[in-house]
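Chapter summary example: a protein plus 2-phosphoglycolic acid.
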Amino acid sequence: MKPIIVANWKMNPAILMEAKKLFNSVGRGIRNIKKVEVVICPPFIYILHLGHVKYNLRLGSQDAFWETKGAYTGEISSQMLKDLGVEYVILGHSERRRYFKESDEIINKKIKAVIVCGLKPILCIANLTQLKKSLRGISKKVIIAYEPVFAIGTGKPCSISQAKKMRNKIKYPQVLYGGSVNSKNAADYIKKAGFKGLLVGGASLNPKEFVKIIKTVDES
Ligand code: PGA
């Protein structure tokens, strides 16, 4: 199983031209990467404009609604995303839990819809309660991203030993680490803590730094 490195662009960059520039720089920078799967999760509205087929990049989204279509103003379904070439969907990110009051029940419905659609869910959790509740009734092995809230966007990454302890408690084959990942600490989460990939926020907006992260994991 290849490690996967996921770029969560969040609500960035501010304009499409910058998004294209960032995407192209990363795409060019990882041409020789063989051992890592790289997934870019841009804001929904940019997805259609990023020509991932040109590069060795996969597309993901940062959320998806649980119904396929219907009267749900402002929402976007997994089916719509799949149709545009999206393969992965991040769900339950701590910012969605915090700002949009997404509960484990809502996240559970969303994961099920993503699975039915044939896309790969990446479930973000900060603790084992969220893991258990969000996956109720789901037997398929989903990708888990362990993201301690104190480490997200703070520049204060989780220590390798603490992350490793948590990784060992999550009994899933593919567990990613997320929270203040940079090119200096990236390889340690894989080599020392046993994670099978990374979820990168801030550092994924800097193409040089993001490519460096990918290369250190590819070489490790
Ligand atoms: P960060 O964000 O890398 O900026 O800490 C990670 C995330 O929110 O997934």
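Key point: The two ends are 15 Å apart (CA to CA).
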